[in-house]
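Handout for the seminar on molecular recognition.
Each group receives one record of this type.
Step one: identify the two inputs.
Step two: read the structure output and locate the region that could contact uridine-5'-diphosphate-xylopyranose.
Step three: write two sentences on what you found, then compare them with the reference statements printed after the record.
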Amino acid sequence: MRLSVIGCGYLGAVHAAAMASIGHDVVGIDVDERKIATLSEGKAPFFEPGLQEILTDGIESGRLRFTTDMSEARGAKVHFVGVGTPQQKDSYAADLTYVNAAVDALLPYLTEGDIVAGKSTVPVGTAAELSQRVTATGSTLVWNPEFLREGWAVQDTIDPDRLVVGVPEGESGEAAAAILREVYHPAIAKGTPFLVMDRPTAELVKVAANAFLATKISFINAMAEIAEVAGADVTRLAEAIGHDERIGRQFLKAGIGFGGGCLPKDIRAFSARAEELGRGESVAFLREIDAINLRRRDRAVEIVVEALGGSVFKKNVTVLGAAFKPHSDDIRDSPALDVAVRLHGLGAWVTVTDPAAIENARRVHPQLNYVEDRDEALRGADAVIVVTEWDEYRHNLSAEHAASIVNSRVIIDGRNCLDAKEWRAAGWEYHGMGRP
Ligand code: UDX
């Protein structure tokens, strides 16, 4: 099927390449000329495992191309809109400028029977507002939220755990659902649930899912705060409660909290929208979720300060990680980088290393010292803090080896990802998050 994908960021670029990889004829469109030039050469503009391969294959097969020219959307049956919805500069609400601009720019090229499928995460009610403009062209607007995780984006797009489509009532909605069923046929044939619902529900599904995930993380981080004063170990607690299938083990890793381009802004936009709808109190707990999350960064910094005898001034602190999570070069709202910047602000000499995110980090925080080689970064450290649980630090860094490079054996495990026993046995003073 001929498809267009408007917006070629983390979401759109992966979606375009993934749709080509399952046999569709796809044009990816973005206003950013540099990004389009990179993608057109078959190069991934950001780090995402597996993306490079499907981009190259798509372009070589002739089924995938990229352009800045919106008129090339003409002739596609489905137009996916996957542009950004960042937090507004002066409020918690989502900024819908890009969504509105993308849909408006697309309107002249829509023809009768086309489907416009919104993928961006938007406040509930957005589809209803956009719908009139789209319907006037004889096209149908549906909402088809995306649940991909960075680092697993290709797999999550080709082989999602569920597909959700919000459609308008009546024949046009039924026809649109049938067309999307065709688009996603390979996944549906493998048994992926395909859930058709109304548009407000589909919009809400996405923010509700992210709110739930954020809540789970902050719940366990709140337990970490209690564990810290009670002399308990939050990692053992998570393991024990996680055996209850109703609770589950996933997303119960306590540490320096969540970041990235989705969870933080999505829970804020959700509470802003709930307030607009007169139901602010229904999700008032999300403010608390946010506050708990941010407190963990404070706590990590505090632990480093305490471990260094009350001050980090003129101390060498090595920060292992900058990305908001492993398998990603994304530093948007990264708790890792935030901790590094705060330590720098307190007068520490901060050296940051990361397998993928140094370039992005340096652009935003040039004041920090970046070293690509992990061992080089560890040299002479008075304290080491792990803030992103890359395998390079979790599994491939031995406590013995690290001990031979640093100045002082002090390790703060901001992600509770190291074997405390191993590090202590090698003579390290080990500090976890919510662990004795
Ligand atoms: C998230 C959702 O998982 C995804 O479904 C949605 O489409 C977009 O938002 P992503 O932002 O890629 O995906 O990251 P995710 O893997 O959810 O992690 C988010 C943050 O939570 C990371 O900073 C991670 O380190 C942190 N986290 C995750 C924890 O601190 N503890 C956990 O147990 C799990």
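Reference statements: The pocket of uridine-5'-diphosphate-xylopyranose is lined by residues 146-150, 210, 213, 217, 251-253, 255, 257-260, 262-263, 324-325 (CB under 6 Å). Residues 198-436 form a domain with the Rossmann fold fold (CATH 3.40.50.720).
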